[in-house]
Amino acid sequence: MRRCTRCKLERPLSEFGLSCGKPRYWCKRCMNEYGRERHTRERTALLAQSRLRRILRPEKHRESNWRRYPILNHFGTLFTWDDYLLMLNQQDSKCAIKDCRSILPSMGRGSNLDHDHATGIARGILCSACNRSIGHAQESSSRLKSLAEYLEEASKWKE
Predict the structure, then answer these.
(1) pTM over 0.85
(2) Do 17 and 32 sit in the same domain of this protein?
(3) 152 phi and psi, to 5 degrees?
(4) How far apart are CA 34 and CA 128, in angstroms?
(5) Which of 41, 56, 71 is the endpoint of a domain?
(6) Does residue 120 sit in the same domain as residue 47?
(7) Domain match, 127 and 105 both
(8) Least CB-packed of 11, 31, 101, 157 within 10 Å?
(9) Backbone phi, then psi, for 123, in 5-degree steps?
(10) Percentage of residues in the chain having pLDDT higher than 90
(11) Count of structural domains within the chain
């Protein structure tokens, strides 16, 4: 029997892990509980740091994502924050889809860089709804045309 120095309970030696061939001071239950607490505490701190970095330097956060999934500009070089701002300015801070009236923020969330998955070349900046629509249609223009035709036919049924 051995006393755990954390929970102060007498436990059999089988409930203590080994460190360098000797029983640990804490029982396995206390070690597991401590590990979970530490993981939660450190994860919370890491998430807070990440959130703060994303708020303070959104351009660095975005560029790191663009490097992770190599997205290219029209010149074939890696897409940068300057390319993003130029494209956003060319679109008058609006979604690249013509009928969409969404105004895109220059920083942070709400805007998505649309790119061709086959070539990796950026096509435009979209609002989240338009970006999801293209994604759900699996970037198939024929599927999107079929969806538009379906909506037009369905609206005739109501009349």
Answers:
(1) no
(2) yes
(3) -65, -45
(4) 41
(5) 56
(6) no
(7) yes
(8) 157
(9) -105, -35
(10) 34
(11) 2
> Which parts of the chain are beta strand (E)?
2-3, 10-11, 16-19, 22-27, 111-115, 122-127
Least confident of 57-66, 119-128, 140-149: 57-66
What is the rounded CA–CA span in Å between residue 89 and residue 133? 23
In our burial notation (b when 16+ CB lie closer than 10 A, e otherwise), range 105-135 reads: eeeeeebbbbbeeeeeebebbbbeebbeebe
pLDDT at 106 over 70: no
Considering the domain architecture, whether residues 46 and 98 belong to the same structural domain is answered as no
Identify which of 95, 155, 86 has the alpha carbon closest to the alpha carbon of residue 130.
95
Is the domain of 64 the same as that of 51? Answer: no
The DSSP call for residue 74 is: T
My answer on whether 19 and 43 are in the same domain is yes
Whether residue 151 sits in one domain with residue 82: yes
**Domain of residue 11, residue span:** 2-56
Residue 64 and residue 32 in one domain:
no
Q: At 140, which amino acid appears?
A: S
Choose the most confident range, by mean pLDDT, from 32-41, 78-87, 103-112, 121-130: 32-41
The tens digit of pLDDT for each residue in 53-92 reads 877 887 777 777 777 777 888 788 888 888 888 998 999 9
